[in-house]
Amino acid sequence: MFRRLLLLVTAAVTLLVVWPASRALSQGGPPGGPPQPGTPLSQVKWEPWNNPGLARMPQDVSPDGPAPVRDLTGLWDTARAGIGARGARGAPAPLTAWGEQVSKTHHSGDGVRMVPVEEINDPLSTMGDPGGFPRNLLFELRQVQFLQAPQAVYGLHMWEKRWRQIWTDGRTLPVDPDPRWYGYSVGRWEDDFTFVVNSNGTDERTWLDNAGNPHSDQLKVEERWHRLTKNRLELTVTIDDSKTYTRPWVALDKIQFFQIPMSVDLMEMMNSASEAQAVAAAFKAEPKK
Amino acid sequence: MRNSLFGVLLTTALAIVASSSLLAHHGSASFDTEKELSLKGTVTEWLWANPHCFLKIDVKDESGTVRNWNLELGNPTDISTLGYRRNTFKVGEAVTVVTQPVKSGAPVGRIRSVTMADGRKF
Q1: B6 vs chain A: nearest CA distance in angstroms?
Q2: What are phi and psi of A246, to 5 degrees?
């Protein structure tokens, strides 16, 4: 019974969803298009410019090797697994009374607070505000390039073309910080392969994720970047905001990254205020009388 | 038949992942997901933008009235994997678009497929 239902659902999804994509591929597919199943990571073809990144998780990451010690250097791709359209992957903890109050004011494009497009008040998509931190980890987590210097680890994010400075010189996070869109971050190696980042000071105007989950200026975020092998990395993100949530909760649990060549040029993916206005205007056309 | 079925199965995971990206800004709350319209029209604008690309076409209805439809696609990063490019459409060219319209009756919809005058289909 369950197997029949599963086959029926798969068939329905195939008919409704697969046909346009399969036609694109049958016509030769786009240049630099996604690798076929079974293509080793090393044989993925990249265009000189404007690559969208891995379209699916590679099954074969050879030639792989042991993880280098205390080194995140590389260009890392979630193969689209980092696109959190409906919000953080982990189930949020219950909201406090303050959290509920703020939550009710967030009218999101997707997830549990989803409203019709013309009612969305997401500052990112309607005004072109920066997505902020940790939304850059919980919404459009695409490619991240890590560069390491003696004083800091730098994360260059494809989405919004933002960079993060994670201080590793032993300083502690600021107390009562001035809010910033991307907060303040410090990092340390917990062991030879696990880089732990602690952050605070994110501006309350940002949303935690695309579902409009709220946060306060008391938000603290822990990231655990674990280098598994030469070509594999995983990330776990924990949210700790006692003003907004009744307990800490895991927003991302061991999301996988794969190393792609540092020479890959990626498409630019940025919201702008003018484009946000153009999209909003497109949805406000007069109804048919 | 066997090859096309195999091809469809091969691309299932890709298409599901690709289509999920179309929801990367908003879901389907505005759209009538039970309805599809086939619109034959002329391109007036191709907006290549985040978070959504828009194809605008003039469509003449049964009464001869021309309405300008705003038809939505995903963001450039995601739809480029389906073959769309910044210069895919030219003003004045004829296209046929299958769309899920919005519930309000406004000439706005979400693109399901586009067929060009030369037969190419996205």
Answers
A1: 11
A2: -75, -15
Helix (H, G, I), strand (E, B) or coil at B13: helix
Q: Which CATH superfamily is domain B2-116 in?
A: Nucleic acid-binding proteins (2.40.50.140)
B66-73 and B108-116 as β-strands: parallel, antiparallel, unpaired? parallel
B23: nearest CB among A14, A20, A85: A85
- Confidence class of residue A8 from pLDDT cuts 50, 70 and 90? low
pLDDT tens digits along A106-126: 999 999 999 988 899 999 999
Asked whether the beta carbons of A252 and A89 are under 8 A apart, the reply is: yes
Separation between Cα atoms, residue A53 and residue A83, nearest integer Å: 13
- Residue A89, chain B, CB below 8 Å: the answer is no
In order of A282, B37, B38, B72, the CA distances from B111 in angstroms are 14, 10, 10, 6
Report domain extents, chain B.
Answer: 2-116
Q: Do B83 and A30 touch (CB under 8 A)?
A: yes
This prediction has a pTM of: 0.83
The answer to whether residues A20 and B113 touch, using CB atoms and an 8 Å cutoff, is yes
Under 8 Å CB pairs connecting chains A and B tally to 164
In angstroms, the separation between the Cα of residue B25 and the nearest Cα of chain A is: 6
What number is the ipTM of this complex? 0.76
Architecture of A74-260 per CATH? Beta Barrel (2.40)
Distance (Å, rounded) from C-alpha B95 to C-alpha B41? 6
